[in-house]
Automatic annotation (TrEMBL):
Boundaries of every ABC transporter domain copy: 2-241
Keyword list, A-Z: Amino-acid transport, ATP-binding, Cell membrane, Hydrolase, Membrane, Nucleotide-binding, Translocase, Transport
Enzyme class per UniProt: hydrolase
Protein name: Methionine import ATP-binding protein MetN
PROSITE patterns on file: ABC_TRANSPORTER_1, ABC_TRANSPORTER_2
CDD domains per record: ABC_MetN_methionine_transporter
A Gene Ontology BP annotation from the UniProt entry: amino acid transport
Source organism (scientific name): Streptomyces smaragdinus
Amino acid sequence: MITTTDLRKVYRSRGREVTALDGVDLRVREGEVYGVVGRSGAGKSTLIRCVNLLERPTSGTVTVDGQDITRLAGRDLRRARTRIGMVFQHFNLLTSRTVRANVELPLEILGLAGRERTRKALDLLDLVGLADKANAYPAQLSGGQKQRVGIARALAGDPKVLLSDEATSALDPETTRSILALLRDLNRRLGLTVLLITHEMDVVKAVCDSAALMKGGRVTESGTVAELLATPGSELARELFPVGGDASTPDSTVVDVTFLGETAAQPVISQLARTYNVDVSILGAAMDTVAGKQVGRMRIELPGRFEENVVPIGFLRERGLQVEVAGEEQAAPVVEAVR
Ligand SMILES: Nc1ncnc2c1ncn2[C@@H]1O[C@H](COP(=O)(O)OP(=O)(O)OP(=O)(O)O)[C@@H](O)[C@H]1O
Ligand SMILES: [Mg+2]
């Protein structure tokens, strides 16, 4: 649904050059919620602004719903943009207009007649749970309510794609959850593809089907959350499910085990202990539900060095678990989910 190919953006200001995007290939499938994470300055906002051409890429292409929007200009571009909704961190509402009039604004630009506009705006406010605030002014709303207005406004042009740049980072955790639930609900009910930027791993955990990690203008890892979790050495997987804990003695083997879907429900650790008569210590663990699936990571300690634990580790791998042994060289940590 959204594809960027070798996307580059170089800012030039006062003789200095900043490469904000350094060859980004992104592939967002129809109907998915896709999260882009990364440190401040990684290029996340630049990327999302290039997807709706608020920012012109220096080179590369952006395809949305089969259309190369980097080739569009004028009226064609404006029309294509109405199919791409955008939600902002600081809501960007007009304070002098009522909630309804804020939602009507893009409908005015689209040329909808007065009565039709009002009906559509009220429908959209109903959709985001704000029907009773139509005549209020932004100043009379809470942050979460303002963001709901922002979302209603973004949906005015019946977009197929919704872009969100840190839509929840100005909100408290509970309000964040309710806004994420709303985005997930809209994604399901309207078949809306959502590309969201966040610096919070919890946001990815709560709503994303897929995710990408950006660093220095490049995507270093990407894939479905399940693919990422199943990839040895994935930095995103580690940040989504951090497990701590140090070995109690140097003569032991520390193993990080990732449980996905069905494997999460199997009593593999107790089977391991029984089958090989080993004492398994749990050093750390995290369990959660991601995209409706049970996922967990656990750091365990087995007595004896790695050489002595080859068989039990093989047993875990045979059960379909993702197993990483501390200190063992890992394959290159770059995941490129090729579809
Ligand atoms: N208009 C601009 N002119 C010049 N440089 C810019 C401009 N916008 C962004 N940059 C630079 O491009 C790089 C990427 O910025 P960007 O805003 O995309 O990062 P980000 O990942 O969104 O960061 P944050 O998490 O802080 O929002 C930064 O080095 C930034 O200083
Ligand atoms: Mg940003």
